[in-house]
Write a structure and sequence with these properties.
This protein has 275 residues and is α+β, with helices and mostly antiparallel strands. It is 37% helix and 16% strand. The chain has 2 domains: 7-175, no CATH class; 196-271. A hairpin with a 2-residue loop joins strand 4 and strand 5 (147-156).
Length: 275
């Protein structure tokens, strides 16, 4: 299955290719004798997987029925995501008969775990309208000799909520007999709106652009979180040019906005009082 989207689009509830392929595979394995050879999907931990593929063994006598079942389930998925992912498509290809496949019991535990693992918005912010507070993206699935590895990325502005979500994910995979580990975590960054630095930023924005500045929050991972954990007394803001579809194949930047951001940054630096 193919599509395409950024991990920051999690609140748009776009299709996850790993989830879609797992959904198609489960009834084939349970009812039609299909064997799982490999499952690979996603490329970046901070991007909703837009591509996933499975290699399967199909009983020769039931190949037409399997293909029809796949097309029927994919049609349902595409209908469900017709607004967010209208370009989604499915591609078939014949491959040489594999010498090995994943044992039925293990394969079913893998597919059921992929379906059970959360990969969506867990909670929206109650303090800032439209802001995702906690989310998870089941980003990457890789089949290696003797193992299948799943990578998910969890984000939250509330550390305790992220820890609870980690336990939820761990429980899903441990119930399936998998080993679970966590790495690369960082705290959320809670912006402080009423600071001298923000006052300077707003004053200079209005001088440069002739209109009030809008203060917004994003559900992306920012360096401010890492710096703020080490230096909690720092006043920090995050600014930048206009970027669309970050962390996806469609990522692009508005070139003119880069120049505007540079002029604004210079104005702010000139106005920052010496300490």
């Amino acid at each position: 299955m193919q599509g395409g989207h950024s991990g920051m689009d999690i609140s748009l509830y776009r299709a996850n290719a790993n989830k879609a392929v797992a959904r198609i595979l489960l009834p084939l394995m349970e009812k039609r004798g299909v064997k799982l050879v490999s499952f690979n999907g996603g490329s970046l931990r901070n991007a909703i997987p837009f591509e996933a593929e499975a290699v399967i063994l199909v009983p020769s006598a039931g190949s037409r029925a399997v293909k029809a079942a796949v097309e029927e389930e994919f049609a349902k998925i595409k209908f469900e995501f017709k607004e967010s992912d209208p370009s989604a498509e499915m591609v078939y290809a014949k491959v040489a008969t594999p010498a090995k496949y994943v044992g039925d019991k293990v394969a079913l535990r893998v597919i059921k775990s992929l379906l059970a693992c959360p990969s969506n918005v867990i909670r929206m912010s109650r303090t800032m309208e439209g802001l995702t507070e906690t989310s998870i993206n089941m980003a990457i699935v890789r089949t290696n000799p003797g193992t299948i590895i799943v990578h998910s990325l969890m984000r939250s502005a509330v550390d305790s909520a992220k820890a609870a979500l980690a336990d939820r994910v761990r429980s899903v995979f441990e119930l399936a007999g998998a080993k679970v580990s966590f790495a690369g975590g960082y705290s959320g960054w809670t912006p402080k709106l009423d600071t001298p630095m923000n006052k300077v930023m707003m004053e200079q924005f209005e001088k440069v652009y002739g209109k009030p500045m809008k203060i917004m929050a994003t559900h992306g991972g920012l360096e401010c979180a890492l710096l703020g954990a080490k230096y909690p007394a720092w006043e920090m803001v995050s600014i930048g040019p206009t970027i669309k579809y970050p962390h996806s194949p469609d990522e692009r930047v508005n070139i003119a906005s880069v120049a505007r951001t540079w002029e604004y940054l210079k104005a702010v630096l000139e106005a920052v009082p010496e300490k």
